[in-house]
Amino acid sequence: MKKHEHEQVEPVTETPHLNEAKQEETTTQPITPEEQIKQLEEQLAAKDKESKENWDRFLRERADMENLRKRANREKEELLSYCNKSLIEEILPVVDNLERALEHANEDTLPALVEGVRMTHSMLLTALKKFGVSPIESAGTPFDPAYHQAMSQVVTDEHPPNTVVTQFQKGYMLKERLLRPAMVSVSTAAK
User: How far is CA 173 from the centre of its chain?
Assistant: First the structure.
């Protein structure tokens, strides 16, 4: 005979902790329909809350995207409106020099030159107007540091204090923005 045939197999005894687990399984009661409904209602409430949070997050993100789109359009329009600023700033000194030439020219001696400079000056002002550039009229107006740069003060009784007496160089607006302030002299009261 073979050796293992004579050996007796001992019965396997369960460990105590396994017995307890089996007893717990047998002692747990099946879930009643009321408890099952309560669990499902709790799950539904949690999913409903999550759904509302997701919807709220979606609406906020959508509003943010709309605001971003509006801001981008506004910046684009502003960029297009003021993109010629540097070009215009380069042209303005030419206009200033033409105006000075007209002030100092004597019409009796050089009528053709004066007429040519007037025409050129007029053409430049017309071209600038097409792009939204307009001069700031300063003489006789109250001094406004937002539009005027004071170069000197003049003591006078002819004008109320803080009034522009003389304009040395015109100021210009580009649509609604200040392109260059006017250089002016400002009146002060006599002491």
Answer: 22
Q: Answer yes or no: CATH 2.40.50.180 is held by domain 133-191.
A: no
Can you say how many angstroms the Cα of residue 87 is from the centroid of all Cα atoms in its chain? 24
pLDDT for 6 equals 52
- For the cut 80, the answer to whether the pLDDT of residue 40 exceeds it is yes
Q: Where are the domains of the chain?
A: 133-191
Report which DSSP code applies to 187. Answer: E
Strand segments, DSSP code E, in 4-105 are: none
In this structure, what DSSP letter does residue 108 have?
A: T
pLDDT tens figures, 95-109: 887 887 777 776 666
Greatest Cα pair distance, the chain, in angstroms, is 150
The rounded percent of the chain whose pLDDT value lies above 70 is: 82
